[in-house]
Write a structure and sequence with these properties.
With about 300 residues, the protein is an alpha/beta fold. Helix content is about 30%, strand content about 25%. The chain is built from ten helices and 13 strands. The protein has helices at about 10-25, 40-45, 50-55, 60-70, 125-135, 150-155, 170-175, 205-215, 220-235, 280-290; strands at about 1-10, 30-40, 75-80, 90-95, 105, 120-125, 140-145, 165, 180-185, 200-205, 245-250, 255-260, 270-275. The strands form three sheets. It has a five-stranded mixed sheet, with helices on both faces. Helix 9 runs parallel beside helix 10 (about 280-290). The termini are far apart. The relative contact order is 0.15.
């Protein structure tokens, strides 16, 4: 049998899809796995932020259409780019073991955010990263930075920025981990929900593909990222909102979730945390605490609830 994996064409996306392909071959000897590289609108439009052109879901649409047309059997994504609710007949049969969840401070000249000179130029298009940078250094000039990892590093090295912030996992996967000058980690700095995790998406009505892919599911990672995504879902979070979350398993098997909502405009942030065993309940609890602490000030206005009939 052959499984065809739809994937974006960026070096990182191809690495992730090749990794999934290798894992599938190891789990199912004799299985043939092929990659179907595709370009997405999120990859093609680089002169505007993701929030301005429709959000991270743009990385998924073409891959989902390929599955609907029968050109691919599954797709591989960075889970942090996957919307909280999947469209159409899709699900995530596998979430692989999570890599490093942290962000990386990258600069050839400066050792940390605090070491940056006043008014230094820092590149990132993530509102979440911008909010946390603004909270620590309101004097910084924050500039948009889109493109694949190598493109971003090249623009930094050419002097376009004094520093940039990327995901540690992406650098590590491309063999560029030495570019990480400093890991930005909890509790002072929180990642995007599900950052560092790779997910496989397939059609609900493809039981054989679902079964083959589910062999790669990593239960501890799924519990943690589902907790983070439950919080994000309750807040109606997206790339339009600076939302951060990190869930970790405790020694007793419970979950600890830390969450943050902020403003990229002025650096105001609110934080909350909760513990428990049910991912959805813990995520909901942190979301409610964040709202109680004023997170609603940073979130888009929600449509009013329809009156009861």
């Amino acid at each position: 049998m052959t499984i065809r994996i739809a994937t974006r064409k960026s070096p990182l996306a191809l690495w992730q899809s090749e990794h999934v392909a290798s894992c599938l071959r190891a789990a199912h000897p004799g299985l043939e796995v092929e990659l179907v590289p595709m370009s997405t609108r999120g990859d093609e439009v680089l002169d505007r932020s993701l929030a301005a052109i429709g959000g991270k879901g743009l990385f998924l649409k073409e891959l989902e259409l390929a599955m609907l047309r029968g050109e691919a059997d599954c797709a591989v994504h960075s889970l942090k780019d996957v919307p909280m609710e999947l469209d159409g007949p899709f699900l995530l049969p596998a979430i692989l073991a999570r890599a490093d969840h942290a962000d990386a401070f990258v600069s050839p000249w400066h050792a940390s955010i605090e070491d940056l000179p006043r008014g230094a130029r820092v590149g990132t298009s993530s509102l979440r990263r911008q909010a946390q940078l603004r909270a620590r250094r309101p004097d910084l000039e924050l500039l948009d930075l889109r493109g694949n990892v190598n493109t971003r590093l090249a623009r930094l090295d050419a002097g376009g920025y004094d520093a940039i912030v990327l995901a540690c996992a992406g650098l590590d996967r491309l063999g560029l981990g030495t570019r990480t000058r400093l890991r930005l980690d909890a509790p002072d700095w929180l990642p995007a929900p599900a950052q560092g995790a790779i997910a496989i998406e397939c059609r609900i009505d493809a039981p054989t593909v679902r079964s083959l892919c589910s062999a790669l599911d990593h239960a501890p990672t799924r519990r943690c990222v589902e907790t983070e995504r439950a919080m994000n879902r309750a807040l109606h979070g997206s790339c339009h909102v600076p939302v951060a979350a990190l869930a970790r398993l405790q020694a007793d098997g419970g979950l600890l979730l830390q969450g943050l909502v902020g403003s990229e405009a002025d650096g105001r942030t609110v934080r909350a945390e909760a513990t428990g065993r049910d991912p959805d309940a813990v995520g909901q609890a942190v979301a409610q605490r964040l709202l109680a602490f004023g997170a609603g000030d940073f979130l888009p206005a929600r449509a009013p609830e329809p009156p009861p009939r």
